[in-house]
Design a protein that fits this description.
It contains two helices and 28 strands. It is mainly β. It has two domains: about 140 residues, Elongation Factor Tu (Ef-tu), domain 3; about 150 residues, Jelly Rolls, CATH 2.60.120. The strands form seven sheets. Strands 1, 2, 3, 4, 7, 8, 9, 10, 11, 12 and 28 form an eleven-stranded antiparallel β-sheet that branches. The longest helix has 15 residues. The model has no long low-confidence stretch (mean pLDDT about 90).
Length: about 300
């Protein structure tokens, strides 16, 4: 057997395990080739006319394709057929895809370092089966799954929380060598992405008594801000921002993407430390705690998974 033990689970909760040689060594699905986790690279370039080289523009990762090649092994032909049907059932595409079942399966494994990873994928092509003549206890297969998001995420979802912050103004000193003190944000939290790629976030910004206008989350480290132009009247009201799906909704599950400020950018966590702060219209100017001496009570939470390419 080659590679780690992979568990594949459908949206309906059905699962199958590859390389499970402990539960039933006589009946299992085993890899013969090391699994391939290819990632497409999307390049944008133009030839330089009349000279060497090219004009090279931004490159991006495309889809990831997982290829599993191995054997279904059984103590008899019936057991082989049972495992084959199980593999087909778990990976089957729904007749009518919807939000509850879009055909994606969750592929999970633990690497040699003990780190647990996962990625969502679905069939890229029908699973191919083959067997040699008179061979009833073994069935070869090749399965290709495509991943819309190429990033592999930790199975451990980390949750961070804090309280709405505010800013104190910058100060520029007049001198022959001018000096400027940058904005200082109060109540920031620091989140560390221990992967090797930017990590997605799910962010909830809550209101408080008296109301919060234009709630926004800012990644001070990257300078990116995401703002929703609405009012959260109390601490039961919130907006949730999912950078992976692009969905922005309120506490009732209503899509409020139409209220997103035009200058907003989804908040991703760069590799290493990230300083984030919850801001609003009450975080600066006349309504700032610097002037009112009324300090924020509104909470926020950020969920993320470390990500690798």
């Amino acid at each position: 057997m080659i590679g780690y033990q992979f568990q594949i689970t459908s949206r309906t909760g059905q699962s199958v395990t590859i390389n499970d040689f402990t539960t039933d060594p006589s009946n299992l699905i085993a890899l013969q080739d090391y699994p391939v986790f290819d990632v497409d690279i999307k390049n944008s370039e133009m030839d330089k006319e009349g000279q060497h080289g090219i004009w090279d523009f931004a490159s991006f990762y495309g889809k990831r394709v997982l290829t599993f090649s191995g054997l279904i092994i059984g103590q008899d032909e019936a057991h082989v057929e049972t495992l084959k049907r199980q593999l087909l059932q778990v990976t089957a595409l729904p007749a009518q895809p919807d939000t509850a079942n879009d055909g994606l399966v969750l592929v999970k494994w633990t690497d040699a370092n003990g780190d647990a990873w996962q990625i969502y994928a679905k069939l890229e092509r029908a699973i191919r089966f083959d067997r040699q003549i008179k061979q009833k206890q073994r069935l070869a297969f090749v399965m290709s799954l495509k991943c819309p998001d190429p990033l592999i995420e930790s199975q451990t979802e980390q949750t961070h929380s804090g309280t709405r912050g505010w800013q104190t103004g910058s100060l520029k000193l007049a001198s022959k060598l001018p000096a400027k003190f940058n904005l200082i944000y109060k109540n920031p939290i620091t989140i560390t992405n221990n992967g090797n790629a930017q990590a997605h976030t799910i962010i909830r910004l809550y209101g408080e008594a008296g109301g919060i206008t234009n709630p926004a989350i800012k990644n001070v480290t990257t300078g990116k801000t995401f703002q929703v132009n609405t009012t959260l009247t109390d601490d039961t009201k919130y907006v949730e921002i999912n950078s992976k799906t692009g969905i922005v909704k309120d506490q009732a599950g209503t899509d409020v993407s139409g209220l997103v400020d035009g200058a907003s950018e989804y908040i991703l966590l760069q590799v290493g430390s990230n300083e984030l702060v919850y801001l609003s219209s009450e975080s600066s100017g006349a309504q700032s705690p610097v002037n009112t001496w009324t300090f924020p009570a509104a909470a926020f939470s950020i969920n993320h998974r470390d990500a690798i390419v």
